[in-house]
Design a protein that fits this description.
Keywords: Kinase, Transferase. By secondary structure, the protein is an alpha+beta fold. It has helices at residues 8-17, 61-76, 119-131, 151-163, 169-184, 228-240, 249-261, 270-273, 277-292, 298-311, 325-338, and strands spanning 23-32, 36-44, 48-55, 94-96, 99-105, 195-197, 206-209, 214-217, 224-226. It is globular, with a radius of gyration of 21 Å.
């Protein structure tokens, strides 16, 4: 696997392939995930910046076309989003420096914080808008849940990590029973409940400009069919469950009220509340496997090691008073029933 190299040749190629105007100044790595990384390309004369997303596993042009169509509908409905640019030959994906990339306009700002003004209301309105856009869904091509690892798989991964001297091995072994219990709560969702939506409205995929209190939704790569109640439940957890295990019930209530006021109809039951668990567990398993995979570039293995360290931290002290994931999911179910 070849990774993008931030040199003059790469910058000139990006300018040429995407028909950008300006003289390239620098290409700076901004963020990195399990499936790709984002760079900022700065140009001069005129001075402007673009986001360059490198896709480790490549991509499918038709999938990007559907994603952009959905993003355009969302923008027309009032959601702010970066614009995806085409190449000079009219495509969205291009190979530059031996890797597949896409380019969009740059959105300045920072990741929103829970105490930023209007965060719960923006989240509720945005999810309701996405869920009611009416973009067509093909149930026959809806993605299936990934296989859920069982207890034996987690313990085997932990043992492999221990043998390889990985720092996350002990924490994964300790977390394995709880991960298996969460997996037991998951249920498949029928195709009749699907809408086309963003899939990944997380704080790390939103830019907040505190000067004008505007939010910009990024990273539309995963847009596709999803059960709206699953997405709503997952985002209530992501935005309102703190790292200390405490659940911001008031913030979640404000999000749900904004969701209902904007026309959102999803109702969260147990199947929907735990519906995001298969993807979350698959991500943990994938990061562990990548961390152990010596065929991958060292930079990717190191990133996976850091990621799983964040995903599976040390067990909390016995005197910790925060809620368990089960407590939070049950609180989300109850809130949905009352609003």
């Amino acid at each position: 696997m070849q990774l993008l190299q931030p040199g003059d040749h790469t910058m000139r190629s990006l300018v040429e392939v995407f028909g950008l105007e300006g003289v390239p100044l620098r290409l700076t790595q901004i963020s990195r995930g399990g499936h790709g990384q984002v760079w900022r390309l700065d140009l001069d004369r005129p001075r402007q910046s673009y986001a360059v997303k490198e896709l480790f596993a490549g991509g499918e042009e038709q999938q990007v076309v559907a994603e952009v169509e959905f993003r355009d509908l969302a923008v027309a409905a009032g959601i702010r989003a970066a614009e995806t640019l085409r190449t000079v030959d009219g495509r969205y994906l291009a190979e530059v420096g031996g890797t597949v990339v896409r380019v969009s306009t740059w959105a300045g700002g920072r990741e929103p914080r829970p105490d930023d003004p209007g965060v719960p209301e923006w989240l509720g309105r945005t999810l309701a808008t996405l869920h009611t856009l009416g973009h067509p869904v093909d149930p026959d091509h809806a993605p299936a849940d990934p296989p859920v690892p069982d207890l034996a798989t987690w313990l085997d991964l932990a043992e492999q990590g221990k043998t390889a001297g990985q720092p996350w091995a002990t924490n994964l072994a300790h977390a394995a029973p709880d991960l298996a219990k969460l997996a037991a709560k998951t249920r498949p969702v029928g195709p009749d409940h699907l809408v086309f939506s963003h899939h990944d409205v997380q704080p790390c995929n939103v830019v907040f400009d505190p000067d004008n209190e505007q939010f910009v939704l990024l990273d539309w790569d995963g847009a596709g069919p999803i059960d709206p109640a699953r997405e709503l439940a997952s985002r209530l957890y992501t935005w309102h469950a703190g790292d200390d295990g405490r659940f911001d019930t008031d913030g979640a209530r404000r999000t749900l009220r904004a969701y209902r006021a904007a026309g959102g109809l999803a109702v969260i039951g147990e199947a929907e509340a735990y519906g995001g668990i298969p993807d979350a567990l698959a991500n943990i398993e994938g990061q562990a496997l990548a961390s152990l995979n010596e065929a991958l570039p060292a930079e990717m293995r190191e990133h996976a090691t850091r990621e799983i360290g964040l995903l599976v931290g040390p067990p909390p002290p016995e005197e910790t008073t925060g809620s368990t994931p089960y407590d939070i999911f049950e609180a989300i179910i109850e809130l949905s029933r009352t609003l």
